[in-house]
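ingest -> validate -> predict -> emit
validate: passed (alphabet ok, no gaps, 237 aa)
predict: started
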Amino acid sequence: MTTDTEEPTLTIDELAARAGTTVRTVRFYSTKGLLPPPVIGARRVGHYGQEHLSRLALIEELQQQGMTLAAIERYVAQLPPDLTPHDLAIHRAVVASWAPEGTETLERRELERRAGRALDEEDVERLVAMGVVVLDGDSYRVDSGLLRLGVRLLDVPVSQEAILASRSVLIEHSRAAAHALSRVFRGEVSQRAAQDVKSLSAHMQPLVVQALLTTFQRSLREELREWLKESPEDRAG
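emit:
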C-alpha cells in the first residue's frame, strides 16, 4: 500500500483494479489531463501512486453528483497543482457532502470493490463500530458517503476507542454548529415561500460545508502547533 510520501508502485492494471475502474478509463482520463502522468521506471513501465487513486476517487464522486465530463475538467483544472492525496480526499469528502443522505445494500464482493481493497473480518467489525457499515443478514448496508473515509481510518495507527471518541466529538459539535447556523438563516428565509427556502438551502450547503472545513483545518493546525510546543511532561499530564 502506498502512502502520501511513498514512491508510486502501482502498474496501470493495479491502479485500475484498486480504483474499481478500467485501464481504458485511466488512459482516457490521462489524455484529458485529469490525472498526472505516471513515474516512468525500468523498462519504460509507468508507475502510479496514492495521488492517482485519490484523483480517481474524486472524479468518481463528481460523476455521482451528476457532473458532466466538461464540468469535471473545469473543476479539476481549478484545483491547486500541489494538492496531496490527503487534500484530494478532503475535496472528495466535501463533494460527497452535497449528496442527500442514503444507504445502499451491498454484497461482500461489491463492498470490497467500493472500498478499493480486500476486507477481513476485523476490518468489517471496525467499519460497523464506526457506523459506516450495518450488517443485514449476509449483506451490508453501507453509508456510501462515509465508506472511503472509514476505509482510510482502518490504517490509522490509533485505537478503535480514540476513533469512536473522535466521531462522537465531531457529531456533537457538528450538530451544534448546524443548529446555530439554522437560527442565523431562519430570519432570512422566514418570509420566503417553501420552494425558495429549498433553493437557498441547496445553494448554501456547499458553501457552508466548505467554510466549516476551512475553519476546522485552521483551528486544528493551531491546536497541533500549541500541542507540539508543550514539553513531554506537560503532554503526559
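Residues 205 and 211 are 10 Å apart (CA to CA).
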